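retry 2 of 3: previous attempt timed out while embedding manganese (II) ion. Reduced batch size to 1 and resubmitted. Inputs unchanged:
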Amino acid sequence: MLFAFSFCLLFVPACPGWISAWQPIIRYMALKQKQYDIAVIPGDGTGPEVLAQGLKVLEAVSEKYGFRPAFHQHNLGGEHYMKTGEILPDESLDLIKRSDAIYLGAIGHPDVPPGILEKGILLRLRFELDQYINLRPVKLYPGVETPLKDKGPEQVDFVVIRENTEGLYAGSGGILRRGTPYEVAIQESISTRMGVERCIRYAFEACRRRNRAKRLTLCGKTNVLTYTFDLWERTFKEVAKEYPDIETDYAHVDALCMWMIKNPEYFDVIVTENMFGDIITDLGAVIQGGMGVAAGGNINPEAVSMFEPIGGSAPKYTGKNIVNPIAAILAAQLMLETLGEAEAAQMIEKAVMKVLCDDLKGMGAGQMGYSTSEVGDLVVEFIEAS
Ligand code: IPM
Ligand code: MN
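retry 2 succeeded.
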C-alpha cells in the first residue's frame, strides 16, 4: 500500500505539510522498489485456473517484500489457434522477449493434433529465448504422500538439470516416401560441445550453491549412445576438474530410473540430456507427490526464463476448479528465486509447506478437500498473516 502511494508521489512535484517533509524519503523508497514485467501465458486446459492462484500469491508476497510485478497477459494456446490460426505471433514473441520472466500455465489441446502447440509455443519459446536449462526440483514435502514404500521427505530431495535446447528436441530429421511401404523416418539427436558444456557447468554451479551432498550425477547411456555420451562424458570430466569440491558420478538412464525408486536419498543433483531429462522428471514428479506439486523452470541464466507447473493441461478437469494449484505456486516460487527475490521465494515455500502439511487431504484433482481457488486462498492467507 505504502509503496503504491509512494509511487504516485514520484510524479507529484510538491506536496503540502507533512507529506512534503517526507517526500525525499518516500521518493527514494519508490525508486528503490523493483518492478518486474512478467509475461503471463495461461494457455490451455487447467492452465488458467492454476496460474490464477500463482498470480494471487505473487501479489501477496510482492506487497510484503516491496517489489512490483506487472503482469502482461498473452492469449495463446489451443482455443486461440482454432479461432485465429495463430500459434505464436511475432508481436507476442517480441513482447515476451522483453519481459523479465514468463509464467506459463499449460500447453496442449485435445482438438489440436499433438505437436502443433507444443512445438509452436512451448518449444519455440525455449529455443528462441535460448532457455538451455530445464530445472526440476524433486522435493517431497512433509504431509505429501509418495508411492515409495518407507521413504519420506528426508529421502526425496534432489534436483534434475535437463539440457533444454538440443538432443532429439532439436528437430533434425524428416520423413522420406511418407505413406508408402518404403517409408523412412529419421529423427536425429544433436549435441554440441557448447550446449553440453554450458549445461554441465550450470549443473556444477547449482550443486555447489545447493551445498548439500555436493554430488553431481551424470545420467547417460554410454554403453549404446556412444557418440552422444562420449561428448557428454568427456565434457563432464573436463569441467569437473574446475570443481574439486563436487563429487562426480555416472549412471545409465535405465539404472538411474531404478535407483530413483530404490534409493532416492542417494541423489543430490542429476544432469542429463533433453529426452532423458523429460522422462526421468515425470518419474521424479510421481515420487514427489504427483503432477499437482511438480514445478519447473526453463532457464536462460543470462536472459529471460520461463516457469511452469509441469503437469500439462489436464483437459478432463478443465473448468471444474478441482486441480491442485500447488505446482503453479511453486513455479512462481522458482521464478522469484531466479529473479533474486530470495526472501519472497522462501515465504512462498513456507506457506506451501504449511498448506500441504496441515490443510490438504490429498494431492490429486478432486482429492484436496478444497477447490483450486480455495487452496490459493489458503496460501495467500498464510502469507498475509506471517
Ligand atoms: C515437458 C513436456 C514437454 C517436453 C512437451 C509438452 C513438449 O513434456 O515440459 O516435460 O517434452 O519437454
Ligand atoms: Mn515432459
